[in-house]
Amino acid sequence: MSRRHTPGRSKGVNGWLLSTPALILLLLAASGPLIIVAIYSVLEKGDYSGVRWILSGEGWFRVLFEKDIFDQTISLADANLSIFWRSFKLSIATTVITFAFGLPTAWFIATRPAKSRAFWLFLITIPFWTNLLIRTFAIMEVIRNQGILNTFLMHSGLISEPIQILYTDTAVLIGMTYVYLPLMVLPLYAAIDRFDFRLIEAGYDLYASRWQVLRGVILPIIKPGIIAGSILVFIPSLGAYVTPRVLGGGKNMMIGNFIELQFGQGQNWPLGAALSTVLLLVVLVSLLVYTRASSRDNPNG
Amino acid sequence: MNPQRGICSLNTDIAVDARNVGKIYGAGAGAVTALGDVSIAIEKGEFFTLLGPSGCGKTTLLRCIAGFETPTTGTIHLSGRDITYDPPYQRPVNTVFQSYALFPHLTVAQNVGFGLKMQGTSAANVANAVERVLALVKLEAFADRLPQQLSGGQQQRVALARALAPEPEVLLLDEPLSALDLKLRKEMQSELKRLQTETGITFIFVTHDQEEALTMSNRIGVMSAGALLQVGTPHDIYESPVNRFVADFIGETNFLEGEVEAGQVRIGTGDLLGVDLDGQTGAVTLAIRPEQVSVTAADAQISGKIAEATYLGTDTHYTIGLSDGSHLVARVQSNSAAAFSVGDTVGVAIDAKAVQVLKS
Predict the structure, then answer these.
(1) CATH, domain range B14-245
(2) What ipTM does the predicted assembly reach?
(3) Quick one: average pLDDT of B156-172?
(4) Which end of chain A is more exposed for a tag (fewer CB within 10 A), N or C?
């Protein structure tokens, strides 16, 4: 009877009850680890690993600065800064290159007859079902000094000495571009699939050249797909671990490897936790800036 | 030069001159001929309509003029210049698309100014032109809206304004009114006519609606199966169709089969009709408009029985069964004579001078 009197409230209570599993999952699985990381970043490092439960700013301090062991002078941690810069640079480059390759690819798929599109999309997604490590080693096999690429170039007489690609930033870039290309192609495909191709004719009819149609009509309309693809590529690139580890050869570290180092050999968990938090903040800020910037040139604004 | 006063006062210059234009899709056994061998000269300042059922090639011809298709054979000249192989963006020709194809990411003003901007017109001049053209289509108040915030009729006007803004030599309209409801369509018909008169731009209008074609055009080209059957003023096309297809497609028509006999035509009922034969002999088809058939209670030339009577307000349609089993539709004014009912035996008189004789 009471149910009939207060249908609204009981429905609301039921709604909350039904969503408790989801809420618990969100709290434990999403926020829990984050909270642990945030707490560890302000504790003192343990003797070998782990943390001591004493409040300390050392972890955060070491993100940007280093203290000389002998005279205790404080200076900027150049090594850390160069790692941040490399991560950022490589991630941006990966995003740009995947876009350059992804746009024609997505366009090609979206303009195939409806029947064969599924096939092309299947080809794009196949690498997803292969282990990342195996794919990365496959790339290694292609670009190493005695690998497929160099062997081919030397046999064809174009070069006399193998080109050193492996263990350079270029290798990391090639690897990340390969790994994250599907993440760019799929959202672009979704956007192009919704695109009204008659608008291209309208553009041509109104004196726009091919380039002007691309810039003034196609790109602005598929912008949501470009944004989605860029975010999906940029964020995992920034935190990439396996690819720079295998193809960059330990010298050319990215933030992901640097963080791993702190939890492993470096035995500095608070610094690792602080770096993780920095990475998270950088991602959040980039996301914010990017979505702001791309919604600002809204014609209504 | 006063383009709206019928063809007599039209500028004699030719705007679009299509010569032997053909378009074949595909090759070999699977080839489809969309356009046979069409030659047409459209005069400057003319409101020209390409009329025909869907799939007759009228849109293909329009797309060849716009530059979206390259003809397989023949040439297209614009004001004397060969444009057959020019890309669309190099032709001073604009199109109003059936789907409107407005740019969804641009405001009404930006849509309208798009063509001018692409032509490199200065921002100030674009703004002036946009204002002027929007006033022409009465959409000044909507300049900052996005296309999806407008009604279908308003979108139609934007599409029109966008195509008119660069002041093209020829405006192509691909069934632009087909998505509108009847009332709006009527409004837009007179609106289009007004715009054409005011701007003096040559309009080439594609439609499958014969009424639209008759009310708006200076001249009409009737097409069927990739061929141009007849070109003429609405009056010519309606009053003297060249063949059965044109007669049937434009307005309602009765067809009676007959045989020429001593300068007259003997129809199936055995009656002789003194029509204007124009030198034709043998088997012929008579095309008779319903309004050229009158129905009387008294005996007349031909007698028949009312098979169906449809009251349509001012007019009444009678379907009359003739003695040989053929039917004639007559349209008479409802208030003119006593109404007949189904089963009545009536006399049928045909205005012989108005009858068209077509080759069977």
Answers:
(1) 3.40.50.300
(2) 0.80
(3) 94
(4) N
